[in-house]
Amino acid sequence: MMNSFKNNKRLQQEFERNVLYGLQKEWYNVIDLLPDVYRRRARFPIFGIKDISNRLGYWSSESREICFSRDLILNHPWDSICEVLRHEMAHQFAHEIFYAYDDPPHGKTFRKVCDLINANPEASGSNPTLHQRIENIQNSGNKIIDKIKKLMALAESQNQHEAQAAMLKAQELISKYNIQNIKEKQKQNYVSIFLGDASLRHTRDEYRLSSLLQEYYFVYGIWIPSYVIKKQKMGRVLEISGTAHNVTIAHYVYDYVRNFINLQWKKYNKKKTLTYHRKTDYAIGIIDGFETTLEKTKLSDISQDDYALIKTQDPLLKQYIKKKYPRIRSFSNRAHEDQNVKSDGHIVGQSLVISKGISENNENQKGRIEWNK
Asked: What is the DSSP string of 148-204?
């Protein structure tokens, strides 16, 4: 993002103003997590962006300012920025709501506030950002995850049968790896990241894809309020939660499927004049077709009892979600569908093979996670 403003100071200033406005909106969104007695004491702070070289952000009780590193704002995705915001809000509330002036900066009161607003106590200072931490975990080495990566690399084979077989073997290994963790009730460090961009409206295929990720990739997806910088309004974004490994795989699959849908739709609609609504039907067909392929893993040597475990999901992840979002509501999204277009998409979706990911280092794909071979 920084390079796009290199020769245009005015655009950068306008972008930063929009970000500051968005952070104000996100601040109000977070205080709703506080009990009424504390919420009434919360006072709106000053927000700032500065050239800070040694930390992501800070709270100043003297100036009543939450300040962010310019590098963080310009070069990191919105979920990383929001995580730092919550951390600094915890410092603010420890001072202004709980009057913990004599406590150490990351003491007992600060951590109590972190629990109240779902803030990460380690999310600021000179610590890595959210996505940097996930990347560090990915690079730390895990034999089973490495094997899954190699299988997905094999899925690049030009032979459709071999490619699909490799993908399904990787899918089976993902299931076995997570089933074992659930059985052993191993304590996990869960993370939450955004998929796609925050928007005022989302199409039905986006909801369908979020359901597929939750069904097959051991993550929990929730549509949450999030600021849309271009529109300068609050919209919604898909947030997924799970272990760093599972979140990375789900992010990888999400990007791959979205790009596959866009490419196939251009081919399909090249000589047609179908509306945007029909693209949604086609996309849902592709996702349904892809799920038909994933269901083939049920024919493998994973027992029915273990599949029952998959359906019940990780109870520790459920606890994490319940604490993070105590008030969750569901909704339905129904519309008229063109069954012929959907059926055409379903056929194409059955040939979808997940193989190679998208690089996070690509400036046009900010926040996308790279999964190297």
From this structure: HHHHHHHTT-SSHHHHHHHHHHHHHHHHHHHHHHHHHT----EEEEEEEEEES---H
Residues 287-299, buried b or exposed e (16+ Cβ, 10 A)?
bbbbbebbeebee
β-partners of residue 33 are none
Q: Tell me which amino acid residue 230 is.
A: K
Q: For 38-182, where are the E strands, in sequence order?
A: 46-50, 57-60, 65-69
Whether this model's pTM surpasses 0.85: yes
Share of the chain above pLDDT 70, in %: 87
* Residue finishing a domain among 127, 162, 196: 127
Neighbouring C-alpha atoms within 13 Å toward the C-beta of 113: 27
Answer yes or no: do 167 and 266 share one domain. Answer: yes
- 74, 96, 127 - which closes a domain: 127
| Same-domain status, 115 and 191 | no
User: Which token pair is 245?
Assistant: 């490994």
89: tokens are 């809000």
What residues make up the domain containing 34? 2-127
Residue 204: CA count within 13 A, CB half-sphere: 19
Dihedral of CA atoms 140, 58, 15, 198 in degrees, nearest 10, equals 50
Q: At what angle do helices 276-294 and 204-216 cross, to 10 degrees?
A: 10
Same domain, 213 and 304: yes
Contacts for 323 with CB less than 8 Å, ≥ 6 apart? 118
Convert the pLDDT of each residue in 24-53 to its tens digit. Answer: 999 999 998 889 999 999 999 999 999 998
Single-letter residue type at 113:
V
Give the three-class secondary structure for 109: helix
Number of domains in the chain: 2
Q: What is the end-to-end Cα distance of the chain in Å, rounded?
A: 26
